[in-house]
Amino acid sequence: MAAAALRLTFTSSPIPNSLQTPAKIPSFDFFKTRHLPPPPPLSLSSQNSVSQSQSLPAEEDDLDLDPTAELSYLDPQTDPDAITSWEVDFCSRPILDARGKKIWELVVCDQSLSLQYTKYFPNNVINSVTLKDAIVAICDELGLPLPEKIRFFRSQMQTIITRACGELGIKPIPSKRCLSLVLWLEERYETVYTRHPGFQEGSKPLLALDNAFPMELPENLYGEKWAFVQLPFSDLDLLGIEVDEKTLIPGIAVSSSRATPLAGWMNGLEVSSIEADTNRACLILSVGISSRYIYATYKKTAVSTSEAEAWEAAKKECGGLHFLAIQNDLDSDECIGFWLLLDLPPPPV
Fold first, then answer.
1. In 254-268, which positions are buried (b, 16+ CB within 10 angstroms) versus exposed (e)?
2. Edge-to-edge strands of the sheet including 85-96?
3. What is the DSSP string of 297-331?
4. Element (H, E) at 159
5. How far is it, in rounded angstroms, from Cα 90 to Cα 105?
């Protein structure tokens, strides 16, 4: 049986109420005020980034699931042609086969979990040909067109996935914004893998996720001012997230005299999260699979450290939910670009 999915959406722009800036630290210089280079030609369908994510609650009949079974599901109410982007994981699991070797598994879904597919593989057939053939088989079995894009979050599988996608004319996108996939893997760990007869307790993931040292931010991504801000949960029009409507969602607002090209450049990145690093007195921007940038700095004082710690604590209270807003001016009610972000721990597999 397919896992139930709750859809999460949010308004793209403008935000109806003004961004609420904490009084203690209204704004910071973005390193130093810097002039941005002329922007490249933009071909954005929208000036705002809109995304969806889901929370995946366990179903009441999870105990009836066969942990050795494979899943092939397409929501009958979904137009197959509308599923143009997949999220894919192809990795070993903490499960041993009859030979005492780790089983590998292909897990495929889309953002809304209208598509759900899993298949186990022995470890001696893991290559791009196996993956390419599996992608074609999924489409044939479920009556789907080949996807236009495939997102994946493990850098160690980049060569295999990129090669398989290239042979099929699919765009591979290394990205930690595989939110539906990561949440589903967390659920499968509890409801499937740990109940499999070959499960090996204490087994660590074979392909660990990277956490690279933060680099200097490319010049075209600099803003001019930034601030810790917050928005009422209700203003984001979110569904499917268990947060009280009065909860204030933390975020970072960035202002720039060239907000539109800045939003365009940011829209070309797979932005996944922002972290307030109190040791370095800076914000760290995570994009793609493992790229991390020092997004902005601030003068380290007792007050600024307290504000950064409070912002991180608020993010934790919201289950990692936070946002990035790009504006012409920090006092404006409108956003040129808006990204809803979710800082999730790596999956247990």
1. bbbebbebbbbbbbe
2. 72-74, 115-121, 102-109, 85-96, 149-152, 171-174
3. E----HHHHHHHHHHHHHHHHTTTEEEEEEES-TT
4. helix 158-168
5. 6
Other beta carbons within 10 angstroms of residue 245's beta carbon come to 9
Cα(325)–Cα(337) distance, rounded to whole angstroms? 6
Q: Which residues of the chain have pLDDT under 70?
A: 1-64, 206-211, 234-243
Cα–Cα distance measured from residue 49 to residue 336, given in angstroms and rounded to the nearest whole number? 10
214 Cβ contact list (under 8 Å, min separation 6): 277, 280, 282, 284, 292, 293, 294
Region of 259 please: left (phi>0), alpha (psi -120 to 50) or beta.
Answer: alpha
Q: What is the dihedral of CA 273, 279, 281, 282, to 10 degrees?
A: -20
User: pLDDT digit string (tens) for 278-318?
Assistant: 999 999 999 999 899 999 999 999 999 999 999 999 999 98
Kindly report whether the global pTM for this prediction surpasses the value 0.85. no
Q: Quickly tell me which residue has 């809803």 as its tokens.
A: 340
- How distant, in Å, are the alpha carbons of 92, 117, 315 from that of 2? 22, 9, 30
